[in-house]
Amino acid sequence: MMRALYIAKTGMDASQFQLDVVSNNLANVNTIGFKRSRGIFEDLYYQTLRQPGGQLANGNLLPSGLQVGTGAAAVATTRIFAQGTPQQTGQPLDLQINGDGFFRILQADGTTAYTRNGQFQRDPNGNIVTVDGLQLNPNINIPATAQQITVSPAGVVQYTLAGATAPQTAGTILLTTFINPQGLQSLGNNLYLQTAASGDPQDGNPQTDDRGTIQSGFLESSNVNVTEELVNMITAQRSYEMNSRAVTTADQMLQKLSSM
């Protein structure tokens, strides 16, 4: 009887974790470049009362045995890196990656982080930076007098100066791919870090080695599907209710035993 209480408790914990994941997805439905997460669960240790394939006293083998599970637990979250819906902004430094790849961002401590958020601006020194003031890696500088800034699908940043007709090249925006992007560590602020699980970063120009292209004047919306998340929320709620009902039922059976 007590086993049922603890099993139901693990189910309630798992449902709560699923609701946490869904809540975070819904909270970031308007976050540019956000990739929704999915909770991964597995069943826990099984208590074996009769070993499957064990031999009986008469020499016969047990065809199935007798095993009792001890519940479920959350073991991982994985990012779904499906492409988000494009939003047209008309700003030349609003950039969207069409396909695979991440923008390279230089952090304050000198390490490189990665993002799908292409909301870039120029700082007072003309460097292309994120909304948090972090530079691209490698850095690209555009003079204050620059006009008609363009970014090509291959990531080439160009501008013209007053009185000149020939465009000047400021640099090329590199993209990075990973063999296992689900293994990246989420830092917040739309940034990811390389880990041993993600594999080594594969840096290069857009449109090369299966990297995506860059679209200027567009931003990639969050790939959260609100309807799907609401369904997941209802499922998590009902699962929690059923497990709590199992706790109540086990408690009533224990109460019945104690009153006998």
SSE pattern: HEEEEEEEEEEEEEEEEEEEH
Radius of gyration equals 27 Å
Task: Report the structural category.
Answer: alpha+beta
Q: Total domains, how many?
A: 2
* Whole-number mean pLDDT: 93
Describe the fold and architecture.
This protein has 2 helices and 19 strands. The chain is of the alpha+beta class and 260 residues long. The strands form 8 sheets. The protein has a 4-stranded antiparallel beta sheet with strand order 8-7-14-17, with no helix packed on it. It has a 3-stranded antiparallel beta sheet with strand order 11-12-13, with no helix packed on it. It is elongated and about 95 Å long. The model has no long low-confidence stretch (mean pLDDT 93).
